[in-house]
Every structure is written in C-alpha cells, then in structure tokens.
Amino acid sequence: MKRILAACGNDCSVCPRYVKHPFEKTGEQLRQTAQLWFKIGYRDHVVTKEEIACTGCKADNWCRYHIAACCEEKHIENCAACDEYPCSILQDCFRVTKSFGPMCQKVCTAEEYVMLKNAFFEKEKNLLDERTNA
Predict the structure, then answer these.
(1) pLDDT tens digits, one per residue of 36-47
(2) 3-state secondary structure of 11
(3) Rounded to an integer, what distance in angstroms lies between the CA atom of residue 92 and that of residue 29?
(4) Can you say whether the dihedral through the CA atoms of 110, 126, 124, 11 is positive or negative?
(5) Number of neighbours of residue 8 by Cβ within 10 angstroms
(6) Contacts of 43 (CB under 8 A, 6+ apart)
(7) The pLDDT of residue 60
(8) Residue 21 contacts by C-beta under 8 Å, 6 or more apart in sequence?
C-alpha cells in the first residue's frame, strides 16, 4: 500500500492509531494501542478507542508544534514541500520525538518498538525522501 505521510513526516500507513480506509483497525487493536500509549508515557491513563483513533492531520487537531496548521496556511501537504524546510520548529519536533526512543526501547517489545520507529522516529528521513523524490 501507498505510504501516507503526516504533516511532520510521521508514516500514517504504519501507525497503530491511523484508521482511515484502507488502514482500519479493530476495537481490540485500538484498545491495545491505548494501552501501549499509557505504557510508554504518551498518555496518563488508558484512553478510549475513539480517543486513540486518528484519521490524519487536520489544522484543528492537537499538535504541540502546530505543524498541520502551518502546512494548511502554506497550502502544502507536509513539511517536505516547505521552502523553509527544516525550520526551527520542525527541528525541535525531530529532537523531541527522538528523545522518546530510549524509553520506548526500554518498555516495548521488539515488535512494538519497530512499529513505533517506522511510524514516528523516522519522520526526518521520510521528509527527506519525499523532498528527494518530488
């Protein structure tokens, strides 16, 4: 299947939260994701499957960096298409995301970690690939 990149470079097509067709998840898969998010410290409690499910970046979605809103303002799909790539906000996003890696490796199974790595920890590589192939 085609890879789907979020505004910041996350790979939605391998994200355990992404539920847009054809990447639907079962209720059980979403429950397990909610438990994983709690285990790695992304949430302070296990949220509902509705709260953990994601259909992709929208400007009004919560994002600590407001990247989707920035992309919408610039009329671009993701940061790879930005003339200012990589801006200081995106560089901060890369740095903070990478900082979660050691904790994830510590508490996750090997399979969970690979999934997180592919979905979130390679955003910089994903955007560079997108810029190169554009």
Answers:
(1) 999 998 899 999
(2) strand
(3) 30
(4) negative
(5) 24
(6) 34, 37
(7) 83
(8) none
Instruction: Give the model's pLDDT for residue 133.
Output: 85
Tell me the one-letter amino acid at 81: A
Residue 5 backbone phi and psi in degrees, to 5: -100, 135
First to last CA, the chain: 19
Ordered alpha helix ranges (H), 1-134: 27-39, 49-52, 67-74, 88-99, 101-107, 110-116, 123-133
Q: Which residues partner with 54 through β-bridges?
A: 18
Q: What is the pLDDT of residue 93?
A: 95
Whether residue 59 contacts residue 72, with contact meaning beta carbons closer than 8 Å, is answered with yes
The DSSP secondary-structure symbol of 52 reads H
pLDDT at 50: 94
Query: Which residues of the chain fall short of a pLDDT of 50?
Result: none
- What is the C-alpha to C-alpha distance for residues 6 and 132, in angstroms, rounded to an integer? 17
* Neighbour-count burial for 57-81, b at 16+ CB within 10 Å, e otherwise: beeeeebebebbbbbbeeeeebbbe
Nearest to 67 by CA among 16, 6, 116: 6
